[in-house]
Write a structure and sequence with these properties.
Blueprint: H1 7-22, H2 31-41, H3 43-46, H4 53-63, H5 72-85, H6 87-93
Helix pairs in contact: 2-4
Length: 99
């Protein structure tokens, strides 16, 4: 659908597609499913972050037994939070691209 979209539009469309492919019919994920999805699909950003307090806080919240499910908005907030604390983000900032 976004064949001619910008790189940023394609990135968000991919995030939405990955989320939707894992979500239940109501468009939500359990906390356990969310944790698994992040650990399998966002590994490059979370690798090496296990000892950071913010990472532990995020994962601990997903480990809590709760009937509350994660919707797409909350999922995107988790993605942004993990991205901002990631060492990979610093590496990306140091890469200069030419067009």
């Amino acid at each position: 659908a976004l064949g001619k979209g910008s790189d940023l539009e394609k990135a968000f469309a991919t995030a939405a597609l990955v989320y939707n492919n894992s979500a239940d019919p109501e468009g939500k994920l359990s906390k356990a499913e969310t944790k698994t999805l992040l650990q399998t699909q966002f590994w490059g950003f979370i690798q090496g972050q296990e000892n950071k307090p913010k990472y532990q806080e995020i994962i601990s919240a997903l480990d809590e037994e709760s009937e509350n499910k994660i919707d797409f908005e909350d999922f995107m907030i988790l993605l942004v939070s993990l991205t901002l604390m990631s060492d990979l983000l610093q590496e990306i900032k140091n890469v200069k691209t030419t067009k």
